[in-house]
Amino acid sequence: MSEHAHPTxxxxxxxxxxxxxxxxxxxxxxxxxxxxxxxxxxxxxATVKALLVLxxxxxxRYSTALTKVAVTAAIxxxxxxxxxxxxxxxxxxxxSYINPFH
Amino acid sequence: MxxxxxxxxxxxxxxxATYLIxxxxxxxxxxxxxxxxEIQLGAINTAVLICSSLTMVMAVHFAKIGNRKLTxxxxxxxxxxxFAFLGIKGVEYHxxxxxxxxxxxxxxxxxxxxxxxxQVAIFFSLYFAMTGMHAVHMIxxxxxxTWLLIANWRGRxxxxxxxxxEMVGLYWHFVDLVWIYLFPLLYLISHHHNG
Amino acid sequence: METAIQNxxxxxxNYLNADYGVMSWLLTTDHKRIALxxxxxxxxxxxxxxxxxMLIRLELLTPAGDLxxxxxxxKLFTMHGVVMIFLFLIPSIPAxxxxxxxxxxxxxxxxxxxxxxxxxxxxYMAGAGFIMYAILTGGLDTxxxxxxxYSTTYSNTNVVSAAIGVFIVGFSSIFTGLNIMVTVHRMRxxxxxxxxxxxxxxxxxxxxxxxxxxxxxxxxxxxxxxxxRIFHFGIFDARLGGDPLLFQHLFWFYSHPAVYIxxxxxxxVISEVIACFSRKRPFxxxxxxxxxVAIAVxxxxxxxxxxxxxxxxxxxxxxxxxxxxxxxxxxxxxxFNWTATLYKGSITFETPMLYxxxxxxxxxxxxxxxxxxxxxxxxxxxxxxxFVVAHFHYVMVGGGVTGFLCALHFxxxxxxxxxxxxxxxxxxxxxxxxxFNLTFFPQFLLGYMGMPRRYHAYPPEFxxxxxxxxxxxxxxxxxxxxxMIYLAWSLRYGKDAGPNPxxxxxxxxxxxxxxxxxxFEETPVVTWEAYNYDEIDGTTKGVEVAG
Lengths: 102, 195, 547
Known about the structure:
The complex is a heterotrimer of chains A (102), B (195) and C (547). Chain A has 102 residues and is mostly helical. Chain A is built from three helices and no strands. In chain A, helix 1 (9-30) packs antiparallel against helix 2. The longest helix of chain A has 27 residues, at 65-91. The N and C termini of chain A lie far apart (54 Å). Helices cover 67% and strands 0% of the residues of chain C. Chain C has helices spanning 22-26, 31-59, 70-89, 92-105, 114-136, 150-154, 159-186, 199-231, 244-278, 285-298, 314-342, 351-374, 376-382, 386-416, 422-449, 463-493, 533-540. Chains A and B meet through helix 1, helix 2 and helix 3 of A and helix 1, helix 3 and helix 6 of B.
């Protein structure tokens, strides 16, 4: 499709090993009681794993700027969906009428 | 293919958004539901998918350097790992069925705590919807891999032309990506009570 | 630059007679034939939707609900909406004129993925099949908006098959958008920079972005509705702790940008037509191009303005109201630029230009009333009344359908090689304009006075305006039917059009009419700016192109 540099087999195997290690890490952390940080750590590790897959296995690191823009746009619009919808749910209790969820 | 994956991000995104919004409001129910998940099976499945991504990437690599035999082997391995994932998922689903955790079919959840049965039902609905949709995508991926195997056996891919292998690879990695987020969201982050 | 192609041989090979037989059409990968396949199907569904509209207007002639039962009336307005939106408006211009013209305007032989293009049409027909099945097995009565929990729990109609139909049609839309985006990025002729592209391409590109980003969310929402209906999940059911409003958030996240899918292509057409019939480059080309992109992006930020009274928080309502005001700005930019294009132009009043003028007026009214509705204070009073109905018909019919008819008349000579009878066409355009206004302007008044929408009976004081509206609808119907007749007539008896009867700018006019299967003998190399009307009129003034 496009001529660009390729990661080597060594890179692939390294990324694979990293992914497995991160999986083990996230499972381990889930067994600890960290309060709100459980979610934060788990999602951060997940994002790191996702980036590894995106950048190396899917070779996004070596793709054209256009591809990178497209993926960024998708993530951005997803965050928009969640964020603006949350703006409704989070602010429902701010006025004096009944909060529907509690 | 990237553009198609953009649509897939938005497609799964709708369900992720729903899940996140309800978690905010029904946290206790989410904890109860999440604690019924078997983390070991989920973790093994995650590892299985990661390995399948490696074999997929190697398949693309071998297609690019023209090694038909190793390409086929890697494609077969990816396919087998995919089936393993689906098998383990089937075991998990069976477990939920046995414990009466399937909304609409035999839902009967023992609940103790600050949440309602309906809220846990929503958790499980989303669980089945999200993992179910993911599984459907994996089955489609398995179909694509089979098609690639046949085409490769017929000698259609060369170092100059191996785009379909690369495209299926992108799709397969995307399905892996969805699971990378599904696993912590469904199994891990609501496992403890004060998350 | 203007190749002197004369249509001297009557049976010259073109895409229409390149191959004969039903299968050559059903298995074609030629974007032009696929465009015609779409044209046939969407016309069929337009008249089906119109049939439902006729029944609605007949019912509303009298205050009592006497023509049909209230349940039937619910089905009528639902099916009118579903058919018109999903089976007509969303595909309309992109699937017909986008398919036909995008490759030609950029100097390409076809779209990037011709087989995917054909698959899009089949998906569209399959989805339409499911929707037809739903209609034939008792109809759907949830409103085209599928609001929960009625659609998931309480309705007794065939929600699931209609939902499947909409899901499949959504994928048709996604693949068309994907095809257009890749084509525009990858297949432009040498020399055709982004700044030299016709505004038609810019707008279709923006539309495709919306299709790709928004439609999947509708798809997953529909899946969740179907699952909930079958398995009683409770995601949107308040009795089980679900939130019906969440459905509305997810639904409108797509459906608001969807209205921009319906209007942007029409705006694309208007840009081309105004430029051609004022013999001028559109004023502020860059601004018009950028406004298409802005509408695409901003359109995703405003969806909850459909939910002001549904129970969202006041603060969210304020945010969305503000964003709604912003999204009006790029549309206004376009209207001002089109008007400025007319200034000091050499204006002629061919049929496409009449439709373009109609568009500018009607869309402005529709758009402005949209801004009124975006103000929460006003919306509280007129939401779910005929004011809203009038607003969206002004933009979707006065804007969308007018744009479609404009395109149909502007590019008919290119697509078929024949000219339509100008006087009949002008008559139709006038009938459409008059009929449309008589139908829908009274509805603004009705809504303001408080008549609710989706009701089959109303208080007697509203009857006069309703009768006027129905009268207008009958005139509008004639205006829509006439083109069917004279366009069909023109296929056999129309004058040969020649390659460029309007002396328009654009690569598509550099081919024969109708074009050959692969469009261009050899790929053109573009060395001129877009809309070079001064060059065209300078060198070819006084020279009649054959036809």
